[in-house]
Amino acid sequence: MVKIECIIRPERLDEVKAALNALGVVGMTVSDVRGFGRQKGYVQHYRGLEYHVNLLPKVRVDVVVSNDQADEVVDAVVEAARTGEIGDGKIFLTRIDDAIRIRTGERGDVAL
Amino acid sequence: MVKIECIIRPERLDEVKAALNALGVVGMTVSDVRGFGRQKGYVQHYRGLEYHVNLLPKVRVDVVVSNDQADEVVDAVVEAARTGEIGDGKIFLTRIDDAIRIRTGERGDVAL
Amino acid sequence: MVKIECIIRPERLDEVKAALNALGVVGMTVSDVRGFGRQKGYVQHYRGLEYHVNLLPKVRVDVVVSNDQADEVVDAVVEAARTGEIGDGKIFLTRIDDAIRIRTGERGDVAL
Amino acid sequence: MFKRFATPLLGALALTLAAAAHAQTPAEAPKIDTGDTAWILASTALVLLMTPGLALFYGGMVRQKNALSTILQSFICLGVISLQWILFGYTLAFAEGTPFIGGLQHLGLNGISFDGVVAYAPTIPSLLFIAFQMMFAIITPALITGAFAERVKFSAFLVFVVLWATLVYDPLAHWVWGAGGWLGAMGALDFAGGTVVHISSGISALVFALYVGRRRGYPDEEMRPHNLTMTLIGTGLLWFGWFGFNAGSALGSGSLAAVALLTTNTAAAAGALAWMFAEWKHHGQPTALGAASGAVAGLVGITPGAGFVSPMAAIFIGLAAGVACYLAVLLKNRLKYDDSLDTFGVHGIGGILGALMTGIFVTTSVNSAEIVQAAVARGPLVQLGIQAVGVVATVVYSAAITWILLKLIDVTMGLRVKPEEEEAGLDLTQHGETAYHLV
Amino acid sequence: MFKRFATPLLGALALTLAAAAHAQTPAEAPKIDTGDTAWILASTALVLLMTPGLALFYGGMVRQKNALSTILQSFICLGVISLQWILFGYTLAFAEGTPFIGGLQHLGLNGISFDGVVAYAPTIPSLLFIAFQMMFAIITPALITGAFAERVKFSAFLVFVVLWATLVYDPLAHWVWGAGGWLGAMGALDFAGGTVVHISSGISALVFALYVGRRRGYPDEEMRPHNLTMTLIGTGLLWFGWFGFNAGSALGSGSLAAVALLTTNTAAAAGALAWMFAEWKHHGQPTALGAASGAVAGLVGITPGAGFVSPMAAIFIGLAAGVACYLAVLLKNRLKYDDSLDTFGVHGIGGILGALMTGIFVTTSVNSAEIVQAAVARGPLVQLGIQAVGVVATVVYSAAITWILLKLIDVTMGLRVKPEEEEAGLDLTQHGETAYHLV
Amino acid sequence: MFKRFATPLLGALALTLAAAAHAQTPAEAPKIDTGDTAWILASTALVLLMTPGLALFYGGMVRQKNALSTILQSFICLGVISLQWILFGYTLAFAEGTPFIGGLQHLGLNGISFDGVVAYAPTIPSLLFIAFQMMFAIITPALITGAFAERVKFSAFLVFVVLWATLVYDPLAHWVWGAGGWLGAMGALDFAGGTVVHISSGISALVFALYVGRRRGYPDEEMRPHNLTMTLIGTGLLWFGWFGFNAGSALGSGSLAAVALLTTNTAAAAGALAWMFAEWKHHGQPTALGAASGAVAGLVGITPGAGFVSPMAAIFIGLAAGVACYLAVLLKNRLKYDDSLDTFGVHGIGGILGALMTGIFVTTSVNSAEIVQAAVARGPLVQLGIQAVGVVATVVYSAAITWILLKLIDVTMGLRVKPEEEEAGLDLTQHGETAYHLV
Ligand SMILES: Nc1ncnc2c1ncn2[C@@H]1O[C@H](COP(=O)(O)OP(=O)(O)O)[C@@H](O)[C@H]1O
Ligand SMILES: Nc1ncnc2c1ncn2[C@@H]1O[C@H](COP(=O)(O)OP(=O)(O)O)[C@@H](O)[C@H]1O
Ligand SMILES: Nc1ncnc2c1ncn2[C@@H]1O[C@H](COP(=O)(O)OP(=O)(O)O)[C@@H](O)[C@H]1O
Asked: Which domains does chain A have, with CATH numbers?
């Protein structure tokens, strides 16, 4: 099993979700994060104090899939999340040793 | 070392925490996430516009434990988080290569 | 590639960011989490009901770097995040199998 | 309120007495006074604002998943009771009738002259008296919602509110303030609604909380207020609006309104300090929620006596209400029934305490109306007894009718949401909305 | 408003008529009445508060990234129009002039005596009349901001607001309420601004929404309100402030103000229930946002008739406004133009409906002023026709001038922010701020 | 305020003069006017609301971990000072005494008749004058809390507030407004509290900020406002309440109140625009926080002159206050002392500027009271000198006493929380609460 961790632009979440559904991926976990990278940030000012904001809102989508599904999922995410501008984000792949479905106690690929 | 990543229902967090404490697990990290899966969502309407909400509030609990403690932790979480209804969530296991306690610089199992 | 997952005190984030930048690390992802550990919490009371709060606000910083950069990054984080008091947090290292830059489709170290 | 100066002898007599009690009004035919009217117009607006204020006060204390449903329960009382009142509520409460309920002669405001006055308030327009009273009828059922927050069906709630307003509030208002009402005729004092508003809602709240049962997970799960800044905004608006509630109950602009305003503010201040210091002593820390709760307790406590007691007495009443309501809330935590936002603990206890203390502290130096002179002549012990009769009657009647209504609704349409709906929150499951989408 | 009783025959005549229409004022020289003044002072404060209330009502409905910019757009109207009004807006609207626009004799409040009165309101200080009217001039352009929320440059918005207030609001106010204004002279009734405030802003909103185009992603992306509790606080403040808006438009304290207050409250209540039940029936669930929207629809609907119709008629107007505005919003969703926060659907439709219904329900039992007697004498059909002329004139004029202004601004300075700015949000890109830093 | 027309010749004379200054009041025995009373009742409520408004204004600007503690610091002033005032504050400020402090004859409202009047305001009830003044005494110490937000012990704060109100506010109020107060006798003009409220709190704020030292991490760490929508709600409530503050200071309902209301609104508008445009020019972007801060600066600036200057002068005062306070805040950032929420920059600087400008712009066309005629007769330069004396005296006295109080509290009970408490936030460590539990 592989965990595919995608850091994407918040406004691409709907597309990514749709793309994954189209592949038959039935589960994912989403969280709000802030990203720092090449994308330049914003200057904020509050009563004359300037703050440089370089942590930008991003969304992180974690999908765990079986090894053989990994490649098509990565491709689908790249396509759905890409705008071509700096700040589109990253995908990281990690090996998952096991997965358990809490409801049933099932383990392995069948638990996804 | 193993990272045990549990996606659970928010309302089971207290039980899971208690179960882990009972096992002598002294640390964990919790975050708010939204999950998509088999559990069906809700329809929201705002001035006649309908939105289907299928990202449901979940809580993610990350616990890193030594290899030999992993199984009992998984079992404890499964028991504490289960309601038997769709949406109880998943547990994912990943190998952790090293852990460092920032305060002391200690490494390995002793850092947990 | 290695993912360096740092759970730190919120108030040390600026220092950690600065330390990473100084090393030439150009990307990281930050999220708000709550941590449970040896650090003791607080008692809250609402109209006479007491709640013990032992999930304390922490910040999680994820940095994926090439294997050879890992050690200096860990050292830099330890130094920047340490206060010497209980609750300074942990760093966990995980092997990352691949990274993809969504904007370009690049893979591997070059995608970081 | 001035209207409670109206005696059981109706019509002209009531009118004359009421007029005589009003310093600025000559004994001749009543005439609308622009200054009196200006203050009651403003007061009506102030009391109106208390319902949104209450919505925030309560809304901040529930969990996020029930924020909107809680706010809406208060808010929609503005919709439902505004219509109920002009259609049939006003006539049931204030038309001449039996000692127990008003007649039906003013159904749909029938027979109310749009540019005349009513005997209850001879220097302000009739419709203004009706509108001002309406605001009291609106907030009273809204108060009850605190007791059953986070677990009741919206449809059942709507039915309950209409029936409760009609069968509990309107008769009680008639007993105390209506022409010929038996409690008023007996000499029970209630300046701005200690029995009619606070005891009635507080007791009904208790009955409702007991009937409907605890929230799932209570008291084991942590149920922390989701937004205390909202509760504090609400407290500010309630305090502000209460000036209209109490000082507006003078039904005119003058010394009596000024006294009522000052006693109100004083009791609120004393209540806030009392609760906060009690908590500080007891738990080691003073809380913002405690100070806010104490302010409301003080405001409740002074309501029946606002225009009858001196500012110094108001300090005492406020302190007593703050401490008593704090203890009542502690007791609830001990007994483990689930009056979620402490409507009984604050409005029930505070209202009872205030009603009784009014009997003790009433003084003609503040208000020289006949009804006050009579009370003072009776002496504090006798008056305390009369006040106690008012309290007991209100408690028994409210509790009984509320219980019957709940039973009725429960067997016909069901009262409580399903467990999984309660778990997911009422906002999503009853209303298809969520309060916040903060990225 | 009383001021609309002023006839085309100016000066002394207008004054006499206005005075005569006012029950409490003897026919002799006008004298400031402290009670009338007290209520209009309070009303001015109440209407002032509506603009922050509107800011919250709107601010809660946008996405978080535009919360501050939306609130600021309303808020800054307080800044810009307050100055515009005393410098030249007031004289354009209310000085004697042509039937179409006021003269310039009161530029910078020139010639206004600081301790006298103006003919429009002979029992309150001149400056108070000016200040009260100012609050209407402030909130009207703020209403429009709901239509183009989340996509317009702040600089362009500021220029638009000043020009719109000067070229649309001020002339329209003169037509209807100004000395010699042609619509007023024709007998069109508008008690508190149905045409001047709501139709003008509602129609301009529609034109603006069509001109500037949809928000990026609309209607495919989900655009949920970021904080409905804020919208509900705003609703509470609007309802509260509207008592000043409508009952203050009696320009004095007395029976007329009382009627207006009661009709206002009644229509708000009926509107809230109507929208909520329509939605319940249609979507299966009643929403808090629906109830709030309906309340505002009811308030809009009653505005033109608040001091002309009975409380029973107000129920009907409120119900009709609630349902009609709900349907208008559904239609928008169908037609897919992007009037983001439904300014047209609520203020345009509600205002038109109310203006017409005023012609039907106007009655001398509520208001016996000459202008009302004339209207009743004409009969409902004729009066409906007159009202329709007022509506059509307002629609055509507002639409035309708004379109010209937008074209002008667009070609000179640009109207809309860049796509990437819209994506990142106006708070960050126009103002360098973000609303929340919640850990 | 009218009360400041009272001369050093006390008793009957003061009363006669005050009465004479009031247009609507005949020279004969004072009589309560229902219209005057209605407006001051409403004004008292409006000023009350300013304290919750301030709590939100400040609460939104701090970091989330200190939201409740900041709100509570303002809020609890309502509790503490309400009691302080009726027990001994009022008598110290307003009873006849020396030129420097009032006597003790009205301790606990002793000797105040509940249905009479006081000489300061002969047409409204005595208790209403006392209640109205109380609201000023409450908000003034609350203003100071902005300077030391996020780092002071709650217990130390409570002690400070009581002592400061007693030893700084009460004497200053006596100097300027009290019967025989030396600044008033000298002819210093302060309509609604420029010196008494704003300079005193602003200077004390500066001293407090310097004494207690910077927040941990300031200025290196980012300390962004946690909820600017809350700050904007607060601004709206402050603007609204300020109508009571300034126009209520006419102590009656009439032309003077109307002028004060209009100058107040005008200066607020001008201040908002001035700050916003200064920032736009300087930083390239206009901010909502800037507009809000500017509005408050304008309101502060007009406070001493609200009933003495014309609306056109108010534009100038508002613009000047907006720019000056903006520059003061920039200077603070340069000097790096930590007046956290800019109480000195806005209230200190704005108050001084307003007090001086009042001397220049005062005109009898707005207010023909004797004190104004005397000021105008002296000529602007002399009056400016008198105003400057008032400013200097207030600055020196407030600074000295505040410093002594802080020293005293610091050595006895400690002033500042522990570093780790400051890090974790005052909400958790001082109050055992947190503001939000948003899932
Ligand atoms: N080395 C890294 N480790 C973890 N997250 C990263 C890393 N580099 C980038 N990110 C995440 O990816 C996001 C996009 O990166 P950025 O450099 O701005 O653009 P791009 O991916 O188009 O080159 C960042 O905001 C951050 O959340
Ligand atoms: N493949 C997956 N990858 C990541 N998270 C998943 C995956 N499948 C499910 N989840 C998470 O688990 C939660 C529960 O899954 P769901 O299918 O609704 O119920 P169940 O686990 O009972 O079958 C989801 O809301 C989501 O957060
Ligand atoms: N076993 C663990 N798994 C995951 N997170 C942990 C674990 N132990 C500690 N943490 C995280 O590290 C934080 C600090 O741990 P704590 O025991 O309080 O202090 P210290 O690291 O100084 O010993 C915790 O709040 C928690 O977020």
From this structure: 2-111 (3.30.70.120)
| Contact yes or no for F203/F349 (Cβ under 8 A) | no
Taking domain D34-431, whether its CATH number is 1.10.3430.10 is answered by yes
D165 Cβ contact list (under 8 Å, min separation 6)? D80, D81, D84, D89, D137, D140, D141
pTM: 0.95
CB contact under 8 A, D229 and F233: no
Residues of chain C contacting residue A32, judged by C-beta atoms under 8 Å apart: 31
**What single letter denotes the amino acid at residue A27?**
G
Longest dimension (CA), chain D: 66
Scanning A60-79 for CB atoms below 8 A from C yields 60, 74, 77-78
Local structure of F227: helix, strand or coil: strand
Cα(D338)–Cα(F3) distance, integer angstroms: 52
**Residue-level pLDDT at E29:** 59
- pLDDT score, position D29: 59
Residues 43-102 of A with CB under 8 A from F: 44-51
Closest C-alpha to F213, from F148, F134, F310, F157: F148
C58 CB contacts (<8 Å, ≥6 apart)?
B29, C7, C8, C9, C10, C32, C33, C34, C35, C89
- Phi, then psi, of A29 in degrees rounded to 5: -130, 130
Domain spans, chain E? 34-431
Q: What is the mean pLDDT of residues D68-82?
A: 98
Centre a 10 Å sphere on the Cβ of residue E321 and count the other Cβ atoms it contains.
Answer: 32
Residue of F nearest to D285 (CA): F431
Q: Smallest Cα–Cα separation from D344: which of D235, D204, D175?
A: D204
Q: Residues D175-178: contacts with CB within 8 Å, 24+ apart? A: D175/D99, D175/D100, D175/D393, D176/D4, D176/D390, D177/D1, D177/D3, D177/D4, D177/D6, D177/D93, D177/D94, D177/D120, D178/D93, D178/D94, D178/D95, D178/D97, D178/D102
pLDDT at C53: 85
In this predicted model, what pLDDT tens digit does every residue of E30-80 receive, in sequence order?
A: 699 999 999 999 999 999 999 999 999 999 999 999 999 999 999 999 999
Q: Is the ipTM of this complex over 0.85?
A: yes
pLDDT of F11 higher than 60: no
pLDDT band at D19 (very low <50, low <70, confident <90, very high): very low
Cα(E139)–Cα(E51) distance, integer angstroms:
6
Closest CA to C43 of C57, C27, C34, C54: C54
DSSP secondary structure code for residue D215 in this structure: P
Reading phi first (left if > 0) and then psi (alpha if -120 to 50, else beta), residue A53 is in beta
Q: Which of F432, F390, F415 is nearest to F199 (CA)?
A: F390
| Tens of pLDDT, residues E355-410 | 999 999 999 999 999 999 999 999 999 999 999 999 999 999 999 999 999 999 99
Q: Please work out, in degrees rounded to the nearest 5, the angle formed at the alpha carbon of residue C58 by the alpha carbons of C57 and C59.
A: 135
Residues of chain C contacting B64 with CB distance shorter than 8 Å: 90, 92
Average pLDDT, chain F: 93
Which neighbouring-strand residues pair with A95?
A2
* DSSP state letter for B37: S
